[in-house]
Amino acid sequence: MHFLIAGASGVTGLGATEVLEAAGHQVTTLSRSNTGPGKGQHISADLLNKASLQDQAAALKDISHVFYAALKPSPDPLTEATENGQMLENLIETLLDIGAPLERLIFLQGGKVYGAHLGVYKTPAREDDSRHFPPNLYFTQEDYARSLPERGVAWTALRPDIVIGHSLGSAMNLGNLIGVYGSLCKAMGHAMQFPGPAAAYEVLVNICDAKLLGQAVQWAAEQQQDGAFNITNGDQFRWKHVWPKLAAWFGVDAGEPQPISLDLRLDKACREPWEKLAAEQHLKEPVISRLGPGGFGDFIFHVQTDAVFDVTKARQAGFDAMTLHSDQCLLDHLDAMVAKGLIPKP
Q: pTM for this structure?
């Protein structure tokens, strides 16, 4: 198998790259960046510009499997659906036009497919739940994917929730955000209050380790799994049980839930304190907005209704890796941030 990972610089793309390369698969990465995260060839291209993809025909001619994790956010749902649908179509149509031996498209969805971005959805969410009122970028992409089997290309949609993994410059990296927030709490000498309302501290949530998601990509390809599958660590938790463990890792008190905007306080007010901390501790990323943007946390930590997925379908189909404890997943991520020189050792 020769995989093309589109959106390789993000949390999910990086996790899949590492897993697939470790499994011995040939991996080519694609993003707008000039360099990629993997050991293999990297393609720099704009998915909205089909001509830029066609210019890379020589590098794309042997691709048999695509993992599509690219995303172009927009506050307007119609623009977001239109542009992201076009990006996916441009890539697949280019591969078909040049005669690549494309067998399967594996593409990333998430809680937004169930309406998580609207603040509430039916839980535990199942793959056969009704769609919410459109538009939605994932509906557009899935409708296109459903047209591909008649052209000889199978499809799999993977639906993780809150992926925990490593990347820089990603707008949705909750693990890194917790690392930045806790490090600043430690440096400033105050409690690590949960930055959301008390109700959000109580609800059930689930997350997904990026490498586990990479294993799901490998499984879907090797076992030829068709359709949509929810993918999480396999457990559910409440922040009120996990947050004190995170605070203890930093050596600070957990305090009480206290809703604040991390976007305003971290990305703006704490820019200079982070630069000072990074210089003192010789950290690799002095730009706080590249390491852990606060906007994603402002959404996640303010969800006040249960937000969990049913993963029975994937388990019944044979994916047996969803056995992680999410509190340990988060603590392991913090350990890895220290090892990578991204946050200080507490």
A: 0.96
Query: pLDDT of 266-298, one tens digit each?
Result: 988 899 999 999 999 999 999 999 998 899 999
Please give the Cα distance from 137 to 73 (Å, whole number). Answer: 9
| Ramachandran angles phi, psi of 5, nearest 5° | -105, 110
Bridge partners, residue 155, by sequence:
105
Helix H or strand E encompassing 207: none
- Kindly report the average pLDDT of the chain as a whole number: 96
What is the per-residue DSSP string for 78-124?
A: HHHHHHHHHHHHHHHHHHHHTT----EEEEE--GGGGTGGGT---SS
The string of pLDDT tens digits covering residues 28-61 is 999 988 888 888 999 999 999 999 999 999 999 9
Burial of 331 (0-12, 13-18, 19+ CB in 10 A): middle
**Domains annotated on the chain, with CATH:** 2-161+209-231 (3.40.50.720), 164-207+235-309+316-339 (3.40.50.720)
